[in-house]
Design goal:
The longest helix has 21 residues, at 12-32. Strand 9 and strand 10 (331-339) form a beta hairpin. The strands form 2 sheets. Strands 6-5-4-7-8-10-9 form a 7-stranded mixed beta sheet. It has 14 helices and 10 strands. It is an alpha/beta fold.
Length: 340
């Protein structure tokens, strides 16, 4: 059948915004029901319903919707996962990001704010400057949220990036600054039998990191240090320091934080910072500009412009900085690698 349109093709962008919450609800329904775990091989809807004890006709309707969303394939009445789903939405996959998606969906902050009121009246009395790791408190149960988010694909993509550094095999001691529950750090350590690590975070988050270390039987190689990295010692003699989304909370004291990191490194040590870097007059990448809205509208400005971190690295003694923008599971991120 010939396809024609009487609508400006560009209006699809607006329509997609309306459909997005529907797609999201449909996806999370399928994940909660564990549908994808049943569909590595083609099955009839009746087989899926019987296996999972679901209503047959409603199961068929949901499977059709998921097929329309291009998450499933349907051939001769049999449904099966697309390669995308098998890689990222099967829990047994090393790239599984189901928990990551759940955390981001539940923790956006948009449901808790009155955007119209904030834009009309401005931030309320809570809008005071917060610095360092104490700023995490505005996100609620940060530690448990991050532990869920760091599992699977998120930890793997960063550990692969770190283990790909030319100096990696020579590392003996690393610091994960603001490392949260520590699953990313632990994944890195697993790639290097001689590497020991310190996870630095607040006391509350540090307790969760200690649990993660025990769960992975890495007590002999990884320990936790707690405090506020802007005020307290972060240790010394590191070969590698990693900071993922950490320097956002030192935005107004960036030189202080970067100099402290520089001083804590051994000669020829490496510092990798992963954060968003706003471009196009602070309008891109859209994922970061939009996702930060609940915080910035309340007066908590943690956004970093592209180049702010790398410039601070060079100002504070690093001999060179390699800058790149990488498409990651959290969107386009700036990865700045500085060498002492």
């Amino acid at each position: 059948m010939t396809h024609c349109s009487h609508v400006d093709a560009s209006v699809k962008k607006l329509l997609d915004m309306i459909y997005a919450p529907m797609y999201t609800k449909t996806l999370f329904t399928a994940m909660e029901l564990e549908l994808f775990s049943e569909l590595e091989e083609g099955k009839l809807f009746t087989e899926v319903a019987e296996r999972l004890m679901l209503h047959p006709e409603n199961t068929r309707l949901l499977l059709n919707a998921l097929t329309g969303m291009e998450l499933l394939e349907k051939n001769e009445a049999r449904y099966r996962n697309t390669p995308l789903v098998n890689k990222y939405l099967l829990r047994k996959s090393e790239w599984f990001i189901g928990d990551h998606l759940r955390v981001y969906n539940a923790g956006t902050g948009f449901d808790e704010i009155d955007m119209v009121k904030l834009i009309k009246e401005g931030p309320g009395s809570e809008a005071k400057e917060k610095e360092g790791l104490e700023a995490y408190s505005i996100f609620g149960d940060w530690a448990e949220m991050m532990k869920t988010q760091q599992r699977g694909g998120r930890a793997k993509e960063i550990s692969d990036m770190v283990s790909g550094l030319p100096e990696f095999k020579g590392f003996r001691k690393m610091l994960d600054l603001g490392g949260g529950p520590g699953l990313i750090c632990l994944e890195i350590v697993k790639h290097h039998p001689e590497l020991k690590a310190i996870i630095f975070d607040t006391a509350e988050v540090g307790r969760v990191a200690e649990e993660s270390i025990k769960e992975n039987n890495l007590e002999s190689r990884v320990e936790v240090m707690t405090g506020d990295y802007l005020k307290d010692s972060i240790g010394e003699c590191y070969d590698f320091i990693l900071a993922i989304g950490t320097l956002n909370f030192a935005k107004h004291n960036l030189d202080l934080a970067v100099k402290k990191i520089y001083d804590a490194l051994n000669p020829h040590g490496v510092f990798m910072c992963i954060s968003e870097g706003l471009t196009h007059e602070e309008t891109r990448p859209k994922e970061m500009v939009v996702s930060w809205l609940p915080s910035v509208l309340r007066g908590f400005d943690f956004q970093l412009k592209q180049g702010e971190v790398s410039d601070a690295m060079l100002r504070n003694g690093f001999r060179n900085v390699f800058k790149q923008t990488v498409s990651m599971l959290t969107g386009d991120m700036d990865v700045d690698i500085a060498r002492k």
